[in-house]
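queue> pop job 88
queue> type: inverse folding (structure -> sequence)
queue> payload:
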């Protein structure tokens, strides 16, 4: 039974009655249409008429709740919103369907006869639908214009559709103008700031490139709308900055949640390729396998992040003592491959690392620093080197390879989708007398493919003009190895077909507080959320703690103790003398002593820019367990108001 004590809903009587007319079905609908008294009361549209109709409806059809009927119609109105993939015409048709559902018609033109115009409840109901339709438009700027028109007296949905189409055209024109103006501003930046050190020929190529690219890709097209202002400011700041760019703060969308100390893992994501040379009997083929392994690492080192994240991101700057420890588990007969990566210097920042596979006696160790500068784009010089060593089959003698690090620059910066391109050349010098040279070319202004390279392997004693093998391709895609004499293909490597091995680290809650993922977990969470305030607070906690530690060390006249690595003096007797002598010979072989024999080995490898020459100390790793550093809690800001000791 209907509870007649319920008060009428808080809607105008005429709209309530219209809803009744739409929603009643079957015999109730026939009664509404045929009963002359009901039709008369409906036409009055007053509150008294509404109450009378409700009483008569409830008496004739016990059970339905009359007060609930308008709520269903309100639900239909609430659903009138333009969907993300819905065209304006489709949305208009949904509006027309709701008008029909209400039992009325769209208003005729204003010049139609007066008898055809809507009046009373029909006009009120149509106005409600028009305003709801306008408020449901997806584009906010168009929506504001349409709502204003519906309130100001647009008489029909057809007219409102035309107003909305005009608004779309106007808004699109303004946005296009904004894009053109932004492009002009960025090109002005190129001409007046970025290109200030370029030759006339380079400028000509650059303008041609910019004109070619502008037809398919807009300046800043990869930058989120909310970050376009900060990105433009960032571009201008790097163009005019004089010094190391690593100290600049990047816009939020370009910041990575990963520390640079983790990048050491990219060296060994194909453990089977890393150990393959140690199994080969032929020294020439061993040198070729080392070259193949090195080339296979380039995709992971310089391309995997932009593929995964959409663009290259600025990594977190590691703090002194930061660690990244883990392993690639045994895969068949490969054995476990371990990684020790440690931030061994802060001014300048230097990361040292070693990768060990004890089953095959393979060890890769090295260190690197980055010096970033701006000239036409962001250029990064990598300072340092890597040393790969392993015993040869049937011998206890170790074979050693010196690997120089490639320089790089950032492409597509102005579009907000930066990626890494390698340039210049790198060398791999072998203690067996073989030499590999890799030349990186990349994509030019008007031609070529990105990440391109060509390499040769030759006997150092015979020179580059007598290569044994050639390698060509793209280090981010695939490359082909050929016999230089016969031109026949002997091997190829395809990045997409070569699966990387999983790298395992301890769960964050079990890590030492100096291990990277645990130390930066609050910063990483803030980066993922885009919360710059939380990011700044979390970074500051670590940075302030580190500054306090350095202050205490200076006052006490001592230096931070490295956990797994030590600084050696190549000009003295530090480290393993035999290994040092081999290293010096490889330096000379790679042409790094071109300044003259009187120069010290340390100066030839810019050791003053890396805080020294760093080597792995196996004795420090033997049986190592957490806590890895004394006073760890002070170094990452987990303890305050107590004086740290070491």
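queue> result:
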């Amino acid at each position: 039974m209907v509870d007649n004590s319920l008060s009428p809903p808080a809607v105008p009587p005429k709209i309530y009655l219209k809803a009744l007319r739409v929603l009643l079905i079957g015999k109730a609908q026939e009664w509404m249409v045929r009963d002359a008294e009901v039709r008369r009361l409906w036409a009055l549209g007053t509150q008294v008429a509404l109450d009378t109709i409700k009483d008569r409806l409830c008496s004739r059809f016990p059970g339905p709740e009359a007060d609930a009927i308008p709520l269903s119609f309100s639900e239909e109105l609430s659903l009138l919103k333009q969907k993300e993939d819905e065209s304006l015409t489709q949305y208009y048709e949904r509006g027309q369907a709701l008008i029909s559902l209400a039992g009325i018609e769209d208003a005729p033109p204003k010049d139609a006869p007066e008898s055809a115009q809507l009046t009373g409840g029909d006009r009120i109901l149509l106005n409600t639908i028009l305003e709801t339709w306008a408020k449901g438009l997806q584009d906010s700027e168009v929506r504001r214009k349409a709502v204003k028109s519906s309130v100001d007296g647009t008489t029909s949905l057809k007219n409102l559709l035309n107003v909305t189409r005009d608004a779309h055209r106007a808004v699109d024109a303004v946005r296009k103008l904004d894009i053109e103006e932004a492009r002009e501003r960025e090109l002005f930046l190129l001409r007046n700031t970025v290109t200030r050190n370029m030759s006339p020929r380079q400028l000509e190529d650059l303008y041609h490139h910019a004109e070619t690219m502008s037809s398919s890709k807009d300046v800043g097209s990869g930058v989120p709308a909310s970050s376009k202002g900060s990105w433009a400011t960032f571009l201008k700041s790097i163009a005019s900055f004089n010094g190391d760019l690593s100290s600049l703060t990047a816009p939020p969308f370009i910041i990575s949640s990963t520390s640079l100390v983790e990048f050491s893992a990219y060296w060994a994501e194909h453990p089977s390729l890393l150990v393959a040379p140690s199994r080969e009997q032929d020294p020439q083929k061993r040198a070729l396998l080392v070259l193949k392994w090195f080339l296979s690492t380039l995709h992971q080192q310089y391309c995997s992040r932009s593929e995964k994240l959409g663009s290259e991101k600025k990594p977190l700057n590691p703090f002194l003592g930061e660690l990244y420890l883990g392993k690639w588990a045994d895969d068949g007969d490969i054995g476990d491959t371990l990684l020790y990566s440690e931030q061994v210097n802060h001014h300048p920042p230097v990361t040292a690392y070693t990768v060990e596979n004890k089953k095959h006696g393979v060890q890769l160790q090295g260190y690197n620093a980055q010096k970033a500068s701006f000239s036409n784009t962001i250029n990064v010089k990598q300072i340092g080197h890597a040393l790969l060593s392993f015993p040869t089959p049937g011998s206890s003698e170790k074979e050693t390879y010196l690997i120089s690090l490639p320089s790089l620059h950032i492409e597509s910066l102005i579009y907000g989708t930066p990626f890494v391109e390698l340039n210049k050349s790198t060398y791999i010098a072998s203690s067996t007398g073989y030499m590999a040279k890799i030349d990186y070319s990349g994509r030019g202004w008007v031609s070529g493919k990105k990440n391109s390279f060509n390499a040769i392997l030759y006997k150092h004693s015979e020179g580059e003009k007598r290569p044994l093998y050639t390698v060509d391709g793209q280090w981010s895609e695939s490359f082909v190895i050929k016999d230089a004499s016969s031109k026949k293909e002997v091997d190829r490597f395809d990045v997409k077909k070569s699966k990387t091995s999983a790298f395992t680290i301890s769960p964050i809650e079990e890590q030492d507080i100096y291990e990277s993922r645990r130390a930066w977990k609050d910063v990483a969470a803030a980066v993922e959320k885009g919360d710059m305030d939380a990011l700044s607070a979390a970074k500051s906690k670590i940075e302030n703690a580190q500054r306090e530690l350095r202050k205490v060390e200076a006052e006490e006249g001592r230096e931070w103790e490295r956990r797994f690595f030590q600084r050696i003096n190549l000009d003295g007797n530090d480290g393993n003398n035999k290994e040092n002598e081999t290293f010096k010979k490889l330096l000379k072989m790679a042409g790094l002593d071109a300044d003259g024999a009187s120069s010290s080995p340390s100066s030839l490898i810019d050791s003053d820019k890396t805080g020294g020459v760093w080597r792995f100390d196996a004795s420090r790793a033997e049986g190592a367990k957490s806590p890895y550093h004394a006073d760890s809690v002070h170094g990452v800001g987990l303890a305050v108001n107590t004086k740290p000791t070491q």
